[in-house]
Amino acid sequence: xxxxxxxxxxxxxxxxxxxxxxxxxxxxxxxxxxxxxxxxxxxxxxxxxxxxxxxxxxxxxxxxxxxxxxxxxxxxxxxxxxxxxxxxxxxxxxxxxxxxxxxxxxxxxxxxxxxxxxxxxxxxxxxxxxxxxxxxxxxxxxxxxxxxxxxxxxxxxxxxxxxxxxxxxxxxxxxxxxxxxxxxxxxxxxxxxxxxxxxxxxxxxxxxxxxxxxxxxxxxxxxxxxxxxxxxxxxxxxxxxxxxxxxxxxxxxxxxxxxxxxxxxxxxxxxxxxxxxxxxxxxxxxxxxxxxxxxxxxxxxxxxxxxxxxxxxxxxxxxxxxxxxxxxxxxxxxxxxxxxxxxxxxxxxxxxxxxxxxxxxxxxxxxxxxxxxxxxxxxxxxxxxxxxxxxxxxxxxxxxxxxxxxxxxxxxxxxxxxxxxxxxxxxxxxxxxxxxxxxxxxxxxxxxxxxxxxxxxxxxxxxxxxxxxxxxxxxxxxxxxxxxxxxxxxxxxxxxxxxxxxxxxxxxxxxxxxxxxxxxxxxxxxxxxxxxxxxxxxxxxxxxxxxxxxxxxxxxxxxxxxxxxxxxxxxxxxxxxxxxxxxxxxxxxxxxxxxxxxxxxxxxxxxxxxxxx
Length: 613
Hints:
Helix content is 60%, strand content 7%. The protein is built from 24 helices and 10 strands. It has helices at residues 22-50, 55-71, 83-93, 103-125, 137-160, 169-179, 185-200, 210-228, 258-290, 296-312, 322-330, 337-352, 354-358, 362-375, 379-388, 390-405, 408-427, 470-487, 504-519, 531-539, 560-570, 581-587, 589-599, 606-609; strands at 78-80, 319-321, 432-437, 443-447, 459-464, 466-468, 491-495, 499-502, 523-529, 551-553. It is elongated, with a radius of gyration of 32 Å.
C-alpha cells in the first residue's frame, strides 16, 4: 500500500486521531474548559471590534474551534475570532455603509466570511502551504503594529464614554482630541478598573483567567452602579447593543452574489492570507516545542472549512489565536479533543449564562481590546529590524503608515510589494569575483566592484555566486565585456559551483559571451556544472561552441573541477604567456606541472589543500 504524501490534504483527518485514553481525555477536557473561560470575554470583545453584536463572537469561537479541530493539522491550534481578522472585517464592510444588524448587513458579512473560507480551503487543496514563506516578516511587523494600534485607537471612545468617531484614522484622532474632555466619569471608571486588573495581574494570566476576572468585577460594579443610581445615565452594557439570546443559533445560508464577491475579493484575500500566516506561525511554533510535524496544507484546508462553518453559525472571519492556542497546549492538551471541549464549553455559556453576558459593560470590553492592542506591539522586533537593515526598516515604516493612515487591507499588500522591491534591489547586485592564486595554495576572491584592481593577464578565473536572474543580466553582460577589454585574457575559467540557479536571461548572456569570445580566439572553460546546467548546455547547443574539454561537471571535492580546468589551461600556455604576478609562479610550465601533480594527489583532499568555498 502506498502512503499519501506528507503534505497531502485529507478530507477526513479525524479518522487518524490517536485512540482515546482516559488520562489523555481528562487533560484535554481540563484544557478545553479552562481556555474557554479565558476566551468568552475575548471573543465578545472581538465581535465588537468587527462591528457585530458581542454574542456573535461566541458563535464564531465555538463553530470555528470545533470544525478547525476536526479538519486541521495541529492538535493545539485554536481557531476563532482574532483581533486582526476582526479589524480587517470591519474595514472590509465599511465601504458598503450598511446598518449593523440589517438583513443586508448579515448577508454581506456571511458572503465575506464564506469567501475567506473558500480562499483558504482552495489554497490548501492546491498545496500552497510553502507560499507563506514568500511573505516577508518585516512587512508583517509593520502591518500588525499598525493594526494593534488601530484596535486601541478604535476603542478609546467606548473607554471614555463619548460618542463614536467618524471613520478614518485622522478623524478618529481629531475626534478624541476635541471630544475627549467630555468623557463620562462613570464609564471611564469602569474602563480604568478593568484595565488596572488586566495590567496588575497579567503576570498570572497563564494560570488564572485574568480577562474573565476583570470582566466579572467590572460587570458587578456596573450592575451595582446602575441599581444605586437608577435616575442617572446608566453605564452602557452589552444588551444596549443587542440581546444575548438563549442557546446556539440555527444554521444560516444565503445565495451567492458573484458581483459582490468580486468586489470583496481583495479584502477577503488579505484576511485569508494574514490568517494563514498566523496559523502557520502558531502551529509551527508549538510543533517545534513538541517535536512534532505540521502539515501546512491540511492546516490551510482546516482553516478554510472552519471559516465556512463560522459563517453558517452566524459568525465572522477569524484565524488561529496564539494566546488561546498557547494556553491549550500549556494546560495539558494532547489531542484535538481539547478544542472540541473548548467549543462545547463556549456553547454551554450561551445556555447557562446569557443574561449575565448581557450585563457586561462595553467599557470593560473596550479596556480588554485596548490592553490587547497595546500589549501586542512588539517594539523589540522593530528595534531588531532597524539594527539589521535600514532598508527593511523602511519597509516596516511604509507598511505601518499605509495601514494606519490609509486602507487597512492595502497596507498588507503594499508591505509585500515594498519588501520585494528591496529584495530585487539587493539581488540585482551581481556577485562575480576574480580568483587569483596565493603562495599557500589558496585563492583570493576579488570582487568586480567600483575601484577594485584587476590586472591584465592571459588567464582569468571567475567565480559566479548566488541566484543569477534577469535583473542581473545587463550587469553580467557589461562586466564580462569589460573583463575582455581591460584584462585581455586568452583563457577564462568560469566557476559555476556556487551559482545556485541561472535563469534564461543570464544564461543567454553566458551563451552569447561564449560565442563571441570563441570568435575572438579565446577559450572559455565552464566548471562545477550541475546536472541542470549540463541539460541546459545541451538544450541550447552551447556544447557545439565549447569543446567537451571546456565543460567540466561538478566533482565531489569543492575545487576538483576548478583545478582540472586550470590544469587544462596550463597545458596550453607557453613561455610567451603574458601573466600577472599572481599567476607567474604557478603557471610557469615546469612549476605548473609540479603544482598540478600536487593538486591531483588522490591522497589529499580540498580541505588539506586549503581550498575553501
